Amino acid sequence: MSGQRIDRQTAHTAGLILLAVLLGGCVNATVDEMTYNEPVAGIGESSVVILGRRHKPDYDTEFDFIECIGDHIHSGDPSIEVINEIAFINQFYPWFEPRTAPLQPQTIDRLLQLPPVAARFDEMKLEYMIWIDGNTENTESTGSMSCGIGPGVAGCFGFGTWGTESEYEATIWDFTDQVEVGRVSAQTSGQNYMPAVVVPIPIIAPVQGTACDSLGDQLLEYLSAFH
Amino acid sequence: MLCFTLLAAGCSTKQVVVEGNFPKPLLDPLPITLGVIYPSAFADHEFFDEAKGRADSDWLVKTGEAQVEFWDILFDGMFDEVVHIRDWETVQRRAPEIDGVLIPAIGDLQYTIPTHTNVKIYEIWMRYEFRLVDIAAIHQQEDGALSFNPDERLADWPITAYGKTPTAFLQTDEEAVNLAAVVALRDAGANFVTSFGATPDVAVWLDGIARREQDAARSSNDQAGDPQPVVDSAEASPAEGEADSGEAL
Lengths: 227, 249
Prior knowledge:
The structure holds 2 protein chains of 2 kinds.
Chain A: H1 2-23, E1 27-35, E2 47-52, H2 63-76, E3 81-83, H3 85-91, H4 108-112, H5 115-124, E4 126-150, E5 153-174, E6 179-200, H6 207-223
Parallel strand pairs in A: 2-3, 2-4
Antiparallel strand pairs in A: 1-6, 4-5, 5-6
Helix pairs in contact in A: 2-6
Chain B: H1 2-11, E1 13-17, E2 30-36, H2 40-43, E3 46-49, E4 58-62, H3 64-78, E5 79-84, H4 88-94, E6 100-112, H5 114-117, E7 121-133, E8 138-140, E9 146-148, E10 153-166, H6 173-195, H7 200-222, E11 247-248
Parallel strand pairs in B: 1-4, 2-5, 2-6
Antiparallel strand pairs in B: 3-4, 6-7, 7-10, 8-9, 9-11
Helix pairs in contact in B: 3-6
């Protein structure tokens, strides 16, 4: 009797694992784009900086997400120089802190009235400033898992699942003309699974990575002459 | 053993000695020689919060060293010359060239961690009190320590600062609180830089310095007549050894 129950439980867990494997990695992505004045010949020797918005009270745009987009653009077109975000913020301290960062392209003028700031921008040959606003969050979770430890044996049994959602918007500023020249947004979501038969096996949906690729592709298409 | 470990973890003190790399501000320095006094309560500042329950930990956040490091870098970039005033000898020797003395203090520090709020953000909030006094307001106490008369201040203004950092995979509470403190320090600097000249009493003081410099330049150009006084009579230094009834630093 108890042997049958264990067999049924094992078959049930195996079914869940199979389902998880089949569903794991499935991410839904929606990308919207609205851009103007595309640099058809590329940006030449000018540079681009990608910055995260961090002035909202309940979230910060992740530094590693910004780095991911920069890497995506640079690997897609190595001629595009993407300035490292942290280095940029430090070089321009305190003008790009959450409290002081410009929220509108027109306010760049105020920064350029400071001679050392204007000189540093000149050195950088900055052509585009791209602001990314958004974040990735885990949503509802269900399932249960129990773990135990005994003399010479330890393990977990159960199944858990939770959702992850990303929502990002990139705003492109033409630095020379001090105007906004486009917005690209990406919304992605996916389900993660954690079946456990002795050892928990996390099957994580690459939600943030997909958002990075989606946004990176659109920005690359805008900035590069070869895409 | 596991239960004991969990119980012990619940009662332990989490300690953070704030550390960070602070950038030099991108500014044209103001043509001012600024004296700076870091009172010991500021230079050794630490914040202790006792655990509210069995599941909580005590928290000890030491910010003093990072405060001094951060504000030194900021002041060095913001003013032509910064004189650290640590003793009476420095006051006497450098008094003629010092335009004003800045004395920072931390009025309040508050923090939250996700276990307190159920929000996945670590936060630090600080309130500073900055006092600007004339070098003549600095006195020596009988025990050799410096003090100043609060009534002789040129300006007195608060600065608030806020830093937050979201939870991250494989990041400890201590690392997150340190990061939030570094963000708060940077925010304090940004607030200080942008509000310094806009603070009414500071603006009056800056105008006075600019006027004195203009007058001095004009009189040296004219090279004739009686020179204008460099120091207003109201700012003349008091006699040495004046009563030490000021606020200890």
